[in-house]
Amino acid sequence: MTWILKAGAASCLTLALMGCSSPENKYYTLSASAPAGPALPTRTAQTIAIDDVSIPAYLDRPQIVVKKDSNTAEVREYDRWIEPLDGMIRQTLAADLAARLGPGRVLDKPAKDSYLLSVTVEEFGQDGDHASLRGQWVLKSQQKDAPAAPVHNFSHDEPIAGKEMPDAVATMSRLLRALSDDIAGSAGN
User: Would 9 be classed as within a structural domain?
Assistant: First the structure.
């Protein structure tokens, strides 16, 4: 009789542990892409270094955050960024800008005569059935007597083609491309 009880208890424990197993984490990254046309023609050899990318605290986590409505957000525990989001945004913007402005125009580190790009992201991610990217950017000269650089607001929205997280992340990458187009259009002149 004890043998039957022990076997039954072991079976129940095994079934309970199987039911408690958590799903595996899925990791996502943003991607850059070439522009639809050739690099923008420019009148100057202006170079850009991305000085700063700041994101709101609610996005500064490994998990992907999805807004459900204006008052509710969901932290997707098993859908995660492969690296910190602000660093991925920085890398993706640098690659997108380099594709738009041409070789040697986007630097890893500021040089003496480069312009410094600062980006402040206020909102970025899935919001219901679309993705949005909102914030400001400024491109400033390092020259001491340069006039104050204008602050540019940006707001991009795009419907998400599917219902899965890879679809949302691909749409978020396209939003960064649109921001790169904005910046390149201003820096190219």
Answer: no
Total count of domains within the chain: 1
SS3 call for 73: strand
> Taking the alpha carbons of 102, 107, 111, 117 in that order, is the dihedral positive or negative?
positive
Task: Tell me which H or E stretch contains 122.
Answer: strand 115-127
Domain membership of residue 73 (yes or no) is yes
Q: Could you report the per-residue pLDDT of 106-162, keeping only the tens digit for each?
A: 988 888 888 999 999 999 999 889 999 999 999 998 888 888 889 999 999 999 998
pLDDT, tens digit (0-9, with 9 covering 90-100), for 34-53: 776 655 555 456 899 999 99
Instruction: Return the structure tokens found at 127.
Output: 């919001």
Domain enclosing residue 86, as ranges: 27-187
Task: Report how far residue 59's alpha carbon sits from residue 169's, in angstroms, rounded to the nearest whole number.
Answer: 14
CATH of the domain at 68: 3.40.50.10610
By residue count, the chain amounts to 189
| CA 10/CA 186 separation, integer angstroms | 68
Distance, CA of 122 to CA of 133 (rounded, Å): 8
